[in-house]
Design a protein that fits this description.
The complex is a heterodimer of chains A (336) and B (431). By secondary structure, chain A is mainly alpha-helical. Chain A contains 14 helices and no strands. Chain A has helices at residues 3-27, 35-47, 55-90, 102-115, 123-143, 151-174, 180-188, 196-215, 217-223, 227-232, 237-259, 265-277, 281-305, 312-331. The longest helix of chain A is centred in the first third of the chain and has 36 residues, at 55-90. Chain A starts with a helix and ends in a 5-residue tail after the last helix. Chain B has 431 residues and is of the alpha/beta class. Chain B folds into two domains: 5-243, P-loop containing nucleotide triphosphate hydrolases (Rossmann fold, 3-Layer(aba) Sandwich); 261-416, Rossmann fold (3-Layer(aba) Sandwich), CATH 3.40.50.450. Chain B is 39% helix and 24% strand. Chain B contains 18 helices and 18 strands. Chain B has helices at 43-50, 73-79, 95-100, 115-127, 143-157, 173-188, 200-206, 224-227, 230-237, 261-264, 279-287, 302-309, 325-337, 353-361, 374-377, 381-394, 402-416, 418-427, and strands at residues 5-14, 17-27, 32-36, 58-63, 66-67, 80-83, 161-165, 192-196, 209-214, 217-222, 240-245, 252-258, 268-272, 291-298, 313-317, 340-343, 366-370, 396-399. In chain B, the strands form four sheets. Chain B has a six-stranded mixed β-sheet, with helices on both faces. Chain B has a six-stranded parallel β-sheet with strand order 15-14-13-16-17-18, with helices on both faces. In chain B, helix 6 links the parallel strand 7 and strand 8 (192-196). Chain B is elongated. Chain B starts with a strand and ends with a helix. Classes of the chains: A mainly alpha (336), B alpha/beta (431). Chain A binds chain B through residues 91, 215-216, 218, 221-222, 224-226, 228-229, 231-237, 278-280, 334-336, and chain B through 48, 51-53, 72-78, 80-82, 84, 89-93, 97-98, 101-102, 104-105, 107, 109-110, 157.
């Protein structure tokens, strides 16, 4: 089957899955609302028109559950897309969206804001976003020499900076006092109290960024053969690397800023999709992103379904790691 | 006409090491040029400079008249295609997808592949004989097949210049020949090919010209037979070698003997030859690392030619002339310096008896080659027969086999240097 047809079939299938997961998730919670009325409420809100659902249900769906679900979908989409790009870019199976220090930078910014004596509204996501981009840019500058950025150096510089920022975060936590609980909660990743504003802002960064990455899917394929080969096939290697790194980091930074550090989505989902659709980024990138969206919405539903709400980062890791190990043992997860 | 490739004074330093030291060379349109040289000589570096992967620290590279440094990689990739040496791939792309990547320079970012693209891919796979592998993951084909997949990719790239880095290194004999025949066809169609090849015989057989690269410079350049000589091969590879003409292909053929000169610490051997009696022996002695002197032989004999080709210390007499006193003195002088003397199965004639007498009187151990029977090569009557008998008496008689002779020479030279060995043993700190 031709690549674009295959891509189309997969994308339609995964979009259907995402809609189904969204509907299912919106029915679950302290108040059970039927899937039919969730669809009714959502369609009414989207296209106008009347609904006979009770006003309380409308508020629960439109102001509490759907913003959270949409934000979860956007974050999962972004993390899986960024993870796919980083794994291909680094030609390393352990690469994740935060490999160049994005999460560590965001954590530093966020925790610093939380433990700061004065509290400024909306400072936290802005500080986290800024911290993420500063860390990634710092790693890039540290790893570059003479206009070239060797991937191996980038990887090591990323680890060094992450370790250093980890020390900074630990220090801030030690001196956090009564803010400690809030800081830990942020670090574990969460989608609580999501608003439409957060979802819209995140989507405004993630969607164009993703389209940019998709335009470079073919270049990413060629880069998989090695930089030398990519050059001889006409890819401007350093420029392409810079662009992919910047956009993937931007997607990750936007996610982390609104949802904290959610691990494993960006590492495991690309591996699973690579098993299913193969290494070609023209199909791998969109399918990974959509699968990541469904995965995060589903795990977040689990996180909030119990009596006490869990940080979603705990659920993604607790569900993702065993599943990944199962794949590793049974189906041979390949090095990207 | 502008040459297809013009490398002008290119220097490359990698990690503080000068890999190429102002290398200049040019490659004519529609020729196949082989780059030969020892491992680490800079062959791959030279190719990487031509395709623009490396920017030279000095000098310039022009391809089809255009300065590679000023071309973007996309433009450069429409002029030069490269088949890399290492084609290991961790990604299970189907073979066809890899070959399609060769069309990258011709397809825009948002463009789709055209019928022409598809045809180029089909044709490339067919020519490189990988069409039956099209749907197999590239990780699951053999190393040799993978090498041909990457050759197909380069063909699909459809460039006037093709660079091949060890294109036959992973191939069996049959596929080596098929691949190089294909390359030769491409050259006939007008493409220019530069190939780094470590197999000197294949390089000599297929290439129009060779460039011998070592120590960062091109040391020899031209048709294979002029580039590959005993001297150049020895200097470049540090291996004793003999270059002959291959009996079947007619191309230069290199036989290397390894650098055992250093190991055996050899010694000086004087060979009494004449005609062609000593020729095979001289090659082997030279290859084994012995410094040879030869004489006296007729100036136009095969032995004299051989001696010249291995740079032996040669004493000659004019053709058909008897040995005079001066020549005898010259030979005696060499006999005195020699660690061993080898007498080949030469014709014994009144003209060369003084030489054989001198060999008999020499202090060095004597090795006598038991070749043609004396009756068939004695024209000096009874004194000739007596002389032969005395030589056999005094020396070690060895069958007429160069390897046996070299072994005998090694033995006697080694025995003679026993003192030196035991002295060395005493100073050896090991128990």
């Amino acid at each position: 089957m031709n690549t674009s047809v295959r891509t189309g079939v997969w994308v339609v299938g995964l979009l259907g899955t995402l809609v189904a997961v969204t509907l299912a998730s919106a029915t679950i919670g302290p108040v059970t609302i039927s899937a039919g009325s969730v669809a009714d409420i959502a369609l009414a809100a989207l296209f106008g028109g009347a609904t006979d659902a009770p006003a309380s249900h409308r508020t629960i769906v439109m102001s509490i559950r759907l913003p959270r679900i949409v934000l979860g979908a956007v974050v999962g989409f972004a993390l899986a897309a960024a993870g796919t790009v980083m794994q291909g870019f680094f030609r390393n199976p352990m690469a994740d969206p935060s490999i160049v220090g994005v999460s560590a930078g965001a954590a530093t910014g966020a925790v610093a804001t939380i433990v700061a004596p004065v509290s400024i509204p909306v400072a936290l996501p802005i500080a986290a976003f800024a911290g993420a981009l500063i860390a990634a840019f710092g790693v890039y500058v540290l790893a570059s020499e003479g206009g070239r950025t060797p991937v191996g150096t980038l990887l090591l510089a990323g680890i060094a900076v992450q370790t250093f920022l980890g020390a900074v975060v630990s220090f801030l936590l030690v001196s956090a006092g009564r803010d400690l609980r809030e800081a830990i909660y942020w670090l574990m990743g969460h989608l609580q109290h999501s608003t439409w504003t957060e979802a819209t802002v995140a989507a405004a960064v993630v969607v164009p960024g993703f389209l940019g990455l998709l335009a470079y899917a073919r270049d990413l394929n060629v880069l998989l053969l090695g930089e030398e080969d990519a050059h001889s096939l006409g890819i401007e290697v350093e420029r392409t690397k810079r662009l992919l790194l910047a956009v993937a980091s931007l997607l990750t930074a936007a996610s982390v800023a609104v949802a904290g550090v959610i691990g494993f989505v960006g590492l495991v989902v690309p591996h699973i999709m690579r098993l299913l659709v193969g290494p070609d980024h023209r199909i791998l990138l969109p399918t990974s992103a959509l699968a990541g969206a469904s995965f995060l919405v589903a795990t977040d539903t689990v996180a909030r379904a119990g009596t006490a709400e869990l940080p979603v980062g705990i659920v993604t890791a607790a569900v993702g790691a065993p599943f990944f190990l199962y794949l590793l043992r049974n189906r041979e997860v390949r090095t990207p | 006409m502008t040459p297809a490739i013009d490398v002008d004074g290119v220097s490359i330093t990698l990690g503080g090491e000068t890999v190429l030291d102002s290398v200049s060379t040019s490659v004519d349109d529609g020729t196949l040029v082989g780059v030969v040289g020892p491992n680490g000589a800079g062959k791959t570096t030279l190719l990487r400079t031509i395709n623009g992967a490396l920017a030279p620290d000095g000098g310039s590279v022009r391809v089809v008249g255009r300065d590679v440094a000023e071309l973007g990689s996309r433009e450069a990739s429409r002029l030069v295609a490269t088949v890399p040496q290492s084609t290991a791939s961790a990604f299970d792309f189907p073979v066809r997808r890899i070959v399609e990547m060769g069309r990258t320079p011709h397809v825009g970012r948002f463009g789709t592949r055209t019928v022409a693209d598809r045809r180029a891919v089909d044709e490339a796979m067919e020519r490189a004989a990988v069409d039956r592998l099209a749907d197999r993951p590239v990780t699951e084909v053999s190393g040799g097949e993978r090498q041909r997949v990457f050759l197909a990719r380069a063909l699909a790239q459809d460039t006037p210049v093709l660079l091949l880095d060890e294109p036959t290194s992973d191939l069996d004999v049959n596929h080596q020949i098929r691949t190089l025949d294909l390359v030769a066809d491409l050259v006939d169609e007008g493409r220019t090919v530069v190939a780094a090849i470590h197999d000197l015989d294949l390089a000599a057989r297929y290439c129009d010209e060779l460039r011998l690269l070592y120590d960062g410079r091109i040391r020899a350049s031209g048709p294979p037979e002029s580039v590959l000589t005993d001297t150049t091969v020895e200097a470049a590879f540090g291996a004793r070698a003999t270059v002959t003409t291959h009996p079947v292909t007619g191309a230069a053929s290199v036989t290397a003997f390894g650098d055992d000169a250093a190991v055996t610490a050899a010694g000086r051997v004087h060979v009494v030859g004449g005609g062609s009696a000593a020729t095979p022996l001289l090659h082997r002695l030279d290859a084994a690392g012995f410094a040879t002197s030869v004489g006296a032989v007729s100036a136009d004999s095969a032995d004299a030619d051989t001696a010249r080709s291995i740079d032996a210390d040669l004493v000659t007499v004019p053709p058909y002339a008897p040995v005079d006193d001066e020549t005898t003195a010259a030979v005696t002088e060499r006999l005195c310096r020699a660690d061993a003397v080898v007498v080949a199965d030469v014709t014994v004639a009144p003209g060369n008896r003084p030489i054989l007498d001198a060999a008999l009187d020499a202090d060095a151990p004597l090795v006598v080659v038991d070749g043609r029977p004396i009756e068939t090569r004695n024209v000096a009557g009874a004194p000739g027969r007596r002389l032969d008998a005395r030589l056999r008496d005094r020396g070690i008689v060895v069958e007429d086999d160069p390897d046996a002779v070299v072994a005998a020479v090694r033995r006697v030279v080694h025995a003679g240097s026993g003192d030196a060995d035991s002295r060395a043993a005493e100073t050896d700190p090991r128990p």
